[in-house]
Amino acid sequence: MKKEIKKILVTGASGQIGSELVPILRNKYGDKNVIATDLKIPLDNKLFESGPFHLLDIRNYETIESIIKNYKIDTIIHLAAILSGIGETKPEFCWDVNMTGTVNVLNLAVKFELAKVFIPSSIAVWGPGMPKKAPQDSILQPATMYGVTKVAGELIGDYYVKKFGLDVRGVRYPGIISSETAPGGGTTDYAVAIYYDAVKFNKFICFVSEDTTLPMMYMPDCIKAVLDLLEAPFEKLKHHTNFNLGSMSFNVKQLVESIRKFKPNFEIVYEPDFHQEIADSWPDDVDDSAAREEWNWKPDWDLDSMTQDMLTKLEARLLR
């Protein structure tokens, strides 16, 4: 029997994805039916004003359990994680947060027989030696602790699907670009910060080289992927926790050229740091044919349309 989504718990709700996903979920499922949680009080009051918000350390099993029981949660969207940039400076902390949180969510989902669990993965699951266009099914040898935790998360999620019949779903997100949330410690965040600095200073100091090519995605497509995958019939899914997710792929030079179509005098300086080695270990693009075939994935945005929208929104907010 199919279980409907009625009450959703979102962890890491004030992060890059969560802060934009929660309002859309509340609009779709009702303000009181989407419970936002995070380790810290969000700077954006919208998460407080539009519906329930709770402080939550995802490593605390008892607190998660109490929220599930009190709100009769049936679906968890587990976004709380330590990203690659911070994870490489604190690898033990990254493992502790990412893996303890994931295992807590999965065990509680089994205990309370939840309808669905969504746990995003990342292009960080790959490492050096991968083809430039990463296949859906391949050997995973990540070069970062963040990537290690994402591989482990995919594997244990699939185990829970097979062992317990739990409906666990996930996508391998590329770099996510957002006009609403400032960059937050990920290797791909140069592609976010460049827009902010283009608006504020008309100049950007980039921590990777101009020919660095990575798969990227605009936030509206990122959110679309969550909603589309959650609504897909379980019986049509051959994969579960590890769908490659494609949208656009470009190098930094192409990104700069796109910005210069709207800001001709934009300047960039390249000062590669430790992020370069991480970026070089990831693929240039991904084969997302499984997502397209199994749940009809199709992105809406390309580089120039994203650039125009990003600059318009940031100028309206940062220059007012």
List keywords for this structure.
single chain; alpha/beta; Rossmann fold; UDP-galactose 4-epimerase, domain 1; 2 domains; 6-stranded parallel beta sheet; 12 helices; 42% helix
Q: How would you describe what is shown here?
A:
There is one protein chain. The chain is α/β, with parallel strands linked by helices and 320 residues long. The chain has 2 domains: 8-175 and 217-244, Rossmann fold, CATH 3.40.50; 177-215 and 249-283 and 302-318, UDP-galactose 4-epimerase, domain 1 (Alpha-Beta Complex), CATH 3.90.25. The chain has helices spanning 18-29, 46-49, 61-71, 84-89, 91-111, 145-164, 190-200, 219-231, 252-260, 275-280, 289-295, 303-318, and strands at residues 8-11, 34-38, 53-55, 75-78, 116-118, 121-122, 133-134, 168-169, 171-173, 175-177, 203-206, 213-218, 243-244, 248-251, 267-270, 285-286. The strands form 5 sheets. Strands 3-2-1-4-5-8 form a 6-stranded parallel sheet, sandwiched between helices. Helix 1 links the parallel strand 1 and strand 2. Helix 3 packs parallel to helix 5 (91-111) and helix 5 runs parallel beside helix 6 (145-164). The termini are far apart. The mean pLDDT is 94.
